[in-house]
Amino acid sequence: MNLKRNGALLGVVAAGALTLAACGTDNNAGSVDVDASASAAACDGKSNLSGAGSSAQKNAMDQFVSTYIAVCSEKGTNVNVAYNPTGSGDGRTQFIANQIDFAGSDSAIKDEQAAQAAERCAGNPAWNLPLVFGPVALAYNVEGVDELVLDAETAAKIFNGSITKWNDPAIAALNEGAELPDANITPIVRSDSSGTTDNFQQYLETASNGAWTSGAGSDFTGGVGEGAKGSAGVAQAVSGSPNSITYVEKSFADQNGLSIAQIDNGSGPVELTEETAGKAIEGAEFVPASEGDLTLDLSSIFGSSEEGAYPLVLATYEIVCSAGYDADTAAAVKSFLISAANEGQEGLSEQGYVPLPDAFKTRLTESIDAIAAG
Amino acid sequence: MSDAHNTSVSIATDEPTRSGTGGATGITEDTISTPPPSPDRARKTVVRPGDRIFGSLASGSAVLISVIIGAIAVFLVWRAVPALQRNQVNFLTSREWITQDITDMAFGVLDLFQVTVLVSFFALFLAMPVALGIAIFLTSYSPDRLRKPLAYVIDLLAAVPSIVYGLWGMLVLAPFLRPVAEWLNTNLAWFPLFATGSGSIVGGGTIFTAGIVLAVMILPTIAAVSREVFVQTPTAHIEGALALGATRWEVVRTTVIPFGKSGYISGSMLGLGRALGETMALYLILRTTSQAFSWSLFDGGATIASKIALGYAEFNNDIQAGAYIAAGLVLFVLTFVVNAAARMIVAGKKD
C-alpha cells in the first residue's frame, strides 16, 4: 500500500528528482569537506535511525541524510538514516506505535495523539521541532499575465468560489494595468489529504479577514475546483489547463515552469523568494508550552504584515521524544538533528525550501541538545 | 515424542481391524461409526500417507480462505462501527466526506459508490465486445501460427502493473482523448452520459478517460477466460454444423457462442470485479470534485478504492480511518453481490 501510494504521481518526477538529488549530493560532497570539522554532530549512538512521515520534507530529508552520512564518514563513523515519506498522519501513527525513532509531520502533534506519544516516550512529552520550511506558491496559468498580485482575501474568494472570473474587480484592483482575461477561474486543489492543503487553509483562515469560512484540515474544504493527486499532480494539472490556479510547493511550480503570484500581505506585494520567505520565518513565534517544545504559532507567520515577508510558508516538524529513548537512540537522534539543523541547511534553497534563519537555528539547537536519554 | 507416534499408529492400525473396512482412514467419522463388515473387496479403499497429507492440506486451504474472508468482514465491521456511530448524516445517501474532526464527522458513500459503479460498468461495456471478438478470433479465425503469440500478447496486457496504466492514462491517453471527448460533449450533450459534468474535459481527469483505461485493464481477463471456454467447444458440434453447410460465422453463432456463453459471462464478471476494486490507475487519473455526481462520463470524482488511497497518508486516528473502512465495507459487499450475481447467471445458463 505504502509503496504503491508513494510510487504514485511522484513517480513521474522521480527521474527528475533523482537527477536533482544526484546534483545535490555532488554539491554537498564539496561543501561537506569544509563542514566536517566544524560540525557539531557527534555521530555517536546507534548507526541506523529510522523516520517516516511528511512527504513535503522528503527532499530536504534526503539532503540532511546524505550530508549527515558524509560528515560522519569523515569522522570515521558509518551511519544511516532511513526516512520513509508515507505521509504525516502515518508518520505520527508509526511514531506512537514505536516503530520509528522520529516522525516528520506537517502539523504539530497535539491533543489525544500527544498523550499517546508521551506514553511511547516513557511518560515524557514528545516535542515538535520545526526543521523544514517550504514556501507554498500560488501558481497559475493565465496567458498574457506574467505578473499577478493576490492577497489572502482574494485567494480565499477564488478558492471558495465567490470569485469566478479572472477579470473580477477584486483581482483587477490589485493588478492595475494588467490585462486580465474574461475567463473562468479553474481552481486546482489537492485530491489527496495533505499538510499543504492544511497549511494553505490555515493561512486563508488567518489572513483573509473572514473571507474563508470553511475551516482548515488536510482535506480541501473550499467546495470548488478540481482535485489532482499530489504536488506533482496539481502542478501538472495547472500547466495543462489554461486559466487555472493552485497552491503548491515552490519547487513543483518551478519544475513545471508555472508563474507564481505575488502576495500582498497588507504592506505591498511580495514576490516569493528565499529572502522573503525567510523573513516571515524569522518573525515566527512559538506556542508557549513545555520548555523545549517548539510548536509554532502559525498565525504569527500567516498573519505577518511585515514589509517584504512572504507569509504563505509550510512549516514541517520533526517529532521526537524529549526523553525516554534508550541512550544509543537518543545520541543518534540528537546527532542527526544537530547535523540537519546546521550543515544540512546548506543548499536547501536549491530544493525549493527555505534555510533556517540563524536566530531560529540557535533556538532549535538548544532544544535538540535538551533531548535526554532514559 | 516416539510414544505418541506409536500410540497414534497403533490406534490407526487397531481401528480397521475392529471395523473391518480396511480403511485406516479416519477420513470421515462415518466410515468408522457405521462399519459395514462387508467382505466385498471392492469397497476397500487403500489410503497412503500422501492421501492423508494432501487431503488435509486441501481441506485446510479451503477452511483457511473462508476464515480469512470472514476475518476481513469482521475487521471491516469492527473498525467501521465507531466511525459510523459518530456520523451525523446518513452514510448511504450522503455525498459529503468530512472526517477530519472526529467530533463532527459527516460522511456518506453515495458519490463514491455511484462513481465506482459508473466507471466500472462503462469499462465493462467497452471491454466486453472487444474481448468477445478477441476470443472468437483466437479460437475460430486466427491462423494457427498467430494463435499462440497473440494469446501471449493478450495475457501480457494483464501483467502490466496498474500504476503503469495509470501513468499512461493520465499523461498519454487523456490528452489524446481530448478531441473525442470534446466532440461527444458538443454533439451528444443531450444524452445524459455525455452531458457536461463536473470534471474538465481539457484536463482529462474524467470518468470517460478512467473508464477507457479500465476497459484496457480488464480486457485480457475477459478475453482469456472466454478463449479457454470457447476452445473447448466439442469438435463434433463444429463439424456437425459444417456438415450441415454452415459458414464459419454460422458455426461460431450456432456452436461456439452458445457453448461458451456462461464462460464469457463469468469472465466478464471477473473483469467487473477487477474494475470495481481497481485503485492505482483511478487514483492517478481521476480528478476529484466538490460538486455532486450527475451520471455524466465527464464528471470527476473518486471511486471507493481511490478515495481510500487518497486519504490514507493523513489518517490521524482510528476513528477517521474507520470512516474510510466503512467505505471499504461497501466495496466489499458490492464485490460480493457482483460475484454472486455472476454465479447465478452462470448457473442459470448451464441448466
UniProtKB/TrEMBL annotation, chain A:
GO terms for molecular function: phosphate ion binding. Keywords: Phosphate transport, Signal, Transport. Phosphate binds at residues 54-56, 88, 106, 194-196. PROSITE patterns: PROKAR_LIPOPROTEIN (PS51257). GO terms for biological process: phosphate ion transmembrane transport. One of its GO terms (cellular component) is ATP-binding cassette (ABC) transporter complex. Residues 1-21 form the signal peptide. SUPFAM superfamilies: Periplasmic binding protein-like II. Residues 46-340 form the PBP domain. Belongs to the PstS family. This is Phosphate-binding protein. It comes from Rhodococcus pyridinivorans KG-16.
